[in-house]
Amino acid sequence: MKILLLEDDTALASVLVDYLEDENEVVQTYSMKKASSLCEVQKFDLYIFDINVPDGDGISLLKELREFHDNTPTIFITAFHDTKYLKAAFESGANDFIKKPFDLEELGQRISNVKRQFGLQSKINIEENIIFDIDTHIVQTPDKNYTMTHKESDFLHYLYKNRARVVSSDELLQNIWEFDEMPSDDAVRTVIKNLRKYIGKEHILNVRGEGYKYE
Questions:
Q1: What is the Cα 198 distance to its own chain's centre?
Q2: For the chain: N or C, fewer Cβ within 10 A?
Q3: 5: Cβ–Cβ under 8 A, 6 or more apart, which residues?
Q4: Any residues with CB less than 8 A from the CB of 88 and at least 6 apart, and which?
């Protein structure tokens, strides 16, 4: 799993990177502006943001990301104990919140919960008899195993993570392809067509005028 860590406390940042890198790829920065730039050019599975950093705050950054259809799961860490920050964090689109000081084990449990909630494990039971291996891009069905392309795998993973809502073609394009290789809507339809062959038409619905939904 690839994590973006925004934390300006150098000592804490070092401890967190050492802990997280045992099982994840971690990109760490002290700057909100740098974090914003990283989000534009790289794809992450999880954000861990401090609320208060020297050049801004994590809450404002997450609001901006959510406005651009970036639904990456986000955990806030902060020294603030005022409930107004808790409220602001969740209103900005946060998925969890942890107050300093905290045990690393507590952070690990919160990350594990987010992984279960958003299907970030390496193998996901997307249906009772269908297993999706994110690392190998293989879908195992009772009848056959399918090896997908990286784009097909990214599409399926994104739709599954956002299965509670309809995802538009524009959102898929913005979150799956890099900006300088942006394809047409036909590319989205082609990938969706292939995914339906692998897991069944009934699992990826076309919501007319809005986009696609995983069922």
A1: 23
A2: C
A3: 13, 16, 17, 20, 26, 27, 28, 29, 48
A4: 59
Measured between alpha carbons, how far is 134 from 141 in angstroms, rounded to an integer?
15
The β-bridge relationship of strands 74-78 and 56-57 is unpaired
Query: Can you list the positions of beta strands (E) in 85-144?
Result: 96-99, 123-127, 130-133, 138-140
Contacts 24+ apart (CB under 8 A), 15-19: 15/104, 16/48, 16/104, 16/107, 19/104, 19/107, 19/108
pTM higher than the cut 0.70 = no
Q: Strand, helix or coil at 202?
A: helix
The structure tokens listed for 175 are: 């979150």
What is the DSSP pairing of strand 138-140 with strand 145-147? antiparallel
Which tokens sit at 105?
């084990």
What would the pLDDT profile of 3-53 be if each residue is shown by its tens digit? 999 999 999 999 999 999 988 899 999 999 999 999 988 889 999 999 989
| Phi, psi (rounded to 5 degrees) for 53 | -130, 160
| Tokens read off for 34 | 């740098």
